[in-house]
TrEMBL record:
<feature type="domain" description="Cation/H+ exchanger transmembrane">
    <location>
        <begin position="14"/>
        <end position="386"/>
    </location>
</feature>
<feature type="transmembrane region" description="Helical">
    <location>
        <begin position="299"/>
        <end position="319"/>
    </location>
</feature>
<protein>
    <submittedName>
        <fullName>Sodium/hydrogen exchanger</fullName>
    </submittedName>
</protein>
<dbReference type="InterPro" id="IPR006153">
    <property type="entry name" value="Cation/H_exchanger_TM"/>
</dbReference>
<feature type="transmembrane region" description="Helical">
    <location>
        <begin position="331"/>
        <end position="351"/>
    </location>
</feature>
<feature type="transmembrane region" description="Helical">
    <location>
        <begin position="217"/>
        <end position="236"/>
    </location>
</feature>
<keyword id="KW-0050">Antiport</keyword>
<feature type="transmembrane region" description="Helical">
    <location>
        <begin position="271"/>
        <end position="287"/>
    </location>
</feature>
<dbReference type="GO" id="GO:0005886">
    <property type="term" value="C:plasma membrane"/>
</dbReference>
<feature type="transmembrane region" description="Helical">
    <location>
        <begin position="6"/>
        <end position="24"/>
    </location>
</feature>
<keyword id="KW-0406">Ion transport</keyword>
<keyword id="KW-1003">Cell membrane</keyword>
<feature type="transmembrane region" description="Helical">
    <location>
        <begin position="363"/>
        <end position="387"/>
    </location>
</feature>
<keyword id="KW-0812">Transmembrane</keyword>
<feature type="transmembrane region" description="Helical">
    <location>
        <begin position="54"/>
        <end position="77"/>
    </location>
</feature>
<dbReference type="GO" id="GO:1902600">
    <property type="term" value="P:proton transmembrane transport"/>
</dbReference>
<dbReference type="InterPro" id="IPR038770">
    <property type="entry name" value="Na+/solute_symporter_sf"/>
</dbReference>
Length: 616
């Protein structure tokens, strides 16, 4: 039996990794292959039966997994960011969530005969969308920047809000189902323990992080361990209060001043692959196909109301008083896929409610999975067509993501911004990011190849990557990540000629892309030129002032960087030798090139004066 459990755990781990890879490769939400894999391994083939395999351990496994999911989601709920991302996002995660909750709850009660409390629990469970399903769809559809930003931030913020709402409704049901307790007293005690312990734990962990009382290598592990301890301790003090405690703890940490939680959020990426992916396969494998089919047309009716009534009504009500056009609102009305939070939390609640003997608890999970399957599959297949029909696509992606925000990158970004070219600077160095922000340049602080960047970095309008950083170990990782995302021909890097000892370790395809600005241009060379006074300048290349005239004026030391041809942005590489007229050339002019140009200007002035004197 032990060998069987070990083999199945290994199999689930491998399958979760494969499903994540398939989702990434096909640019689909990973939830689709995970769901399909779980259904095939469970109800279809009968290879994986989580209840039989894990027995009494299944409930603790799901409980701890859901606690991690809710805590991670709560860490992203910064109240300041809700205000910073516009009225539409604020309305969608407040008024919109309330409208969606009431519509879905009412439809479930009327169509499926759920009690009002169970119907409202189901409505709370499927309020959430989530970045793990929204972001892959946005990258495939490529709507205009404003719409992409609204959908992405709605998914990020609504996760913990919806989960908190579902936890509160569940706790009300759990208390009401126990005839031995006084409902108001028990609910008040449960809320007191959950809210109080969560806030205390959040403050305690925040003080530890703020005062650096732990070594760096222990911070992530310590926070995760304390969170799990709070979850268990809260449940011991008051049954069912643990999920509320960890959610409040995460929200408290996210909004505590002077606490850096970026590393903690990034740490959850490994947990996402190893824990959440495996958990979702187990949840899908537990799905009762007969219960799913028993929902019948009434279940399909609930799905239709979710997609065609609740979401559009929410969007159009929330859009009152905003600058969104009718086409924008219709597009937003079609983009609300449900994800992992709904599946995980519903499965946990169903197990608990079945144990309490609550009527209808066995249908919660099949109905939630029906909504997930319907929204993700239908909207993934049709969102692109709908966006093109409405005319809300972002158009060509001529913008640039620049990895490395040192002085050269900042000066280049300022010139590009002045030419209406979208540009984002990404860097791990906070000082570089701070200086870029002072220049009003869009930035991303952290590793642009991380899972956090996948969810938070707005790539709308960005079509190419320039790697201009000194991080020799990280540069190839970032390049490979964006070669898969944008295409190998859209990623450029500086020459690594000084790293001859490591060249054999890098792929040939990667080495071919190290031609940015010329064969011999390295980060060290650019940094040296900038420190000596080099400037970045824009020059119009015309029939009257050709590229040859440019070379004559500034000499061989001038370094062409980028040239603009109408709305098209072209990157200068080692293969470019001559440039045609009718373009705007952005180049780096070292001190020598500037001095040569000044000498030519003086010589020209002298000739003009001499010519003027001769005429007199």
């Amino acid at each position: 039996m032990v060998e069987q459990i070990t083999a199945m755990l290994g199999l689930v781990g491998v399958l979760s990794l494969v499903c994540q890879w398939v989702g990434w490769k096909m640019r689909l939400p990973a939830i689709l292959p995970l769901l399909l894999c779980g259904l095939i391994m469970g109800p279809v083939l009968g290879v994986l039966d989580p209840d039989e395999l894990f027995g009494e351990l299944l409930f603790p496994i799901i409980s701890l997994g859901v606690a991690v999911i809710l805590f991670e989601g709560a860490l992203t709920l910064n109240f300041k960011e809700i205000k910073d991302h516009g009225r539409m996002v604020t309305h969608l995660v407040s008024i919109g969530a309330l409208i969606t909750w009431l519509c879905i709850g009412g439809a479930t009660h009327l169509l499926l005969g759920f009690s009002w409390t169970m119907a409202m629990l189901f409505g709370a469970l499927v309020v959430v969308t989530g970045p793990t399903v929204i972001v892959p769809m946005l990258r495939s559809v490529k709507p205009k920047s404003q719409l992409a930003s609204i959908l992405r931030w709605e998914g990020i913020i609504i996760d913990p809000i919806g989960a908190l709402l579902a936890v509160l409704v569940f706790e009300y049901i759990a208390v009401a189902a126990d005839p031995t307790t006084h409902m108001i007293y028990a609910l008040g005690y449960m809320l007191g323990v959950g809210l109080g312990l969560g806030a205390l734990a959040g403050y305690f962990v925040g003080q530890i992080l703020r005062q650096n009382l732990l070594p760096h290598y222990l911070k992530n592990t310590a926070v995760l361990t304390i969170m799990l301890g709070v979850f268990v301790g809260s449940n011991l003090l008051q049954e069912e209060s643990g999920l509320l405690s960890v959610t409040v703890m995460g929200i408290f940490l996210a909004n505590m001043r002077g606490v850096d939680i970026a590393d903690i959020i990034e740490f959850k990426e490994t947990l996402t692959v190893l824990l959440i992916s495996a958990l979702f396969i187990l949840l899908a494998a537990r799905l009762d196909s007969h219960a799913l089919l028993s929902l019948g047309w009434e279940g399909v009716g609930v799905l239709a109301i979710v997609m065609f009534i609740a979401r559009p009504l929410s969007v159009w009500c929330c859009g009152i008083g905003t600058s969104l056009s009718r086409a924008d609102k219709w597009f937003l009305s079609w983009m609300a896929p449900r994800g992992i939070v709904a599946a995980a939390v519903s499965s946990l609640f169903a197990i608990k409610l079945e144990g309490l003997g609550v009527e209808g608890a066995g249908l919660i999970v099949p109905l939630v999975f029906l909504i997930i399957i319907g929204t993700v599959v239908i909207q993934s297949l049709t969102a692109g067509i709908w966006a093109r029909y409405l005319g809300v696509n972002a158009g060509s992606s001529e913008g640039l993501l620049i990895f490395g925000a040192a002085q050269f990158s900042r000066e280049l970004a300022k010139v590009l911004k002045s030419k209406q070219v979208s540009v984002i600077l990404a860097d791990n160095n906070w000082n570089n990011i701070r200086l870029a922000r002072m220049d009003n340049i869009p930035v991303y602080f952290g590793n642009p190849a991380s899972e956090h960047a996948t969810n938070f970095l707005d790539m709308t309008g960005i079509g190419r990557l320039l790697v201009i950083s000194p991080y020799r170990q990280l540069n190839p990782l970032v390049s490979f990540h964006y070669q898969d995302l944008l295409g190998s021909e859209k990623v450029y890097g500086l020459s690594n000629a000084e790293e001859t000892s490591a060249r054999h370790q890098l792929s040939e395809s990667y080495m071919k892309r190290l031609c940015l600005f010329g064969e011999s241009v390295s980060y060290a060379k650019l940094a040296s030129l900038m420190s000596k006074g080099a400037v970045i300048k824009s020059t119009n290349i015309t029939d009257n002032f050709s590229f040859n005239d440019f070379c004559t004026r500034y000499g061989d030391s001038a370094m062409p960087l980028i040239y603009l041809e109408g709305t098209k942005v072209h990157i200068f590489t080692a293969s470019d030798t001559r440039l045609s007229s009718g373009i705007e050339l952005i180049s780096l002019l070292p001190v020598e090139a500037q001095a040569l140009a000044r000498e030519q200007d003086k010589l020209s002035e002298s000739l003009d004066e001499a010519e003027s004197d001769s005429k007199d």
